[in-house]
Amino acid sequence: MSTTTARRAGPREWGGLAVLSLPTVLLGLDLTVLYLALPSLAEDLRPSSTEALWIMDAYGFLIAGFLITMGTLGDRIGRRKLLMIGAAVFGAVSVVAAYSDSTGLLIAARAALGIAGATLMPSTLSLISNMFADARQRSVAIGVWATSFALGMALGPVVGGAMLARFWWGSAFLLAVPVAIVLLVAAPLLIPEYRAPQRGRFDLLSVALSLVAILPVVYAVKRGAKEGFGAPMFVAAAIGLVGGVLFVRRQNTLESPLLDVRLFTNRTFSAALGVLLLGLIGVGGSMLLITQQLQLVEGLPPVEAGLWMGPPALMMFLAAIGSPLVARRVRPGIVMAATLALSTLGYALLTQVASTGGIPLMVTGFALVYLGLGAIASLGTDLVVGAAPPEKAGSASAMSETVQELGLALGVATLGSLGTAVYRDRIDEAIPAGTPDDVAEATGDSLANATSLADRLPDGLLDQAKEAATSGLNVAMVVAAVGILALSVLSAVALRHIGTIGGAEPESGAAEGGAVREEPVTHQR
Question: What is the pLDDT of residue 510?
Fold first, then answer.
């Protein structure tokens, strides 16, 4: 790691951080705001069920698929340049999405937004690593960055609900326009350019192989979450595995690879990525189940449910900002292990949530879950980026984002599917004989379907469905608690070699025999 003798950031860099936080908030908001817009959007465009899924998923698919490509592209052409190009495209395509008059056009716009979004996340994070050379300042800056994304996700239901109360569904997309304008004006003034000297050409075959490796895996995870295990899911996963093997083999033969796989020989880099991946699995699954519990079981409207998510978001903010400060005196592995232990307590509280009156316990438990998320998102990301040479910061940032996207998707697939399985098992026993087949089938499938048919359900069946869904939440949180407790121990062990932030112990890739800095760093203002 850098030591405290490195150049310290001044007002310009902190102002630049505020600018970089804007697109990060926007990306988080864009993930959740569409959930509120979907009903009115469906009434206007009348998409089929398959089209509705693609409207929701095209964005996330393409972000995950292009993160590695865009991270490396930013290293080559300039990280600020790529950020500004991505912001301009994101703003323009958001206008297209807002005024789409067909499902095909909206799906295409969502896909383009995903590609543009993939330029923003690694660009913002890698630029932070350039602007904040001092390890202590960088860790705080990354904490602000990590919190910005969670803040956007928390604001999505609230802001989206307020806009939809006054305007049409497309207004949710127009939030990107003022953000893009501010970034395009302020970025040249506050953010320095960085471009790493590279040898060799930009390998398009590697880009194709990276997509073959990532997209089928993301599809398999999402399909498994929605439809359960089946042949299509296993085929997609197998294609992704083969694509991943071919991708890694090609990277080892290139002078200037799309992703330098030597980064994974760095203990800090690999261990921090593992903690991020496993930690986000618990968060992704619990986020889905808690959101459903607030709206379908407790009966809260989306805006009110979003407001109840405010205290957990505050806890994440405190952890993301506070954990780097604590890690100046306590080793990061210990800080992450301690906060994950508190998250385990949060998951344990969620195992006790009841089907009525459970909101205070639910919010308290989820706040503790978010406490651990804030620490691992901040410290884990800092360790990943700090372990890579400056010229590879774009690739390292992209890997950090990719594993977090995959972790969230895996959490939805595993814990979400477990909760659904428990619900179906419990509700099948509760559906009385003589219930119409279509009602019984819908009720047995999900609580959302049961709620939509509330006026046709036999007396008391909806309450039993809510209890079954709550049981699904409780069981899934037991599994999550065990997993996060194990991750807490793993963090303390796997990251024990890392010294305090800003301490004298070197933790660079070169020090550990990992990636070696072979080229000079090029900074431009």
Answer: 37
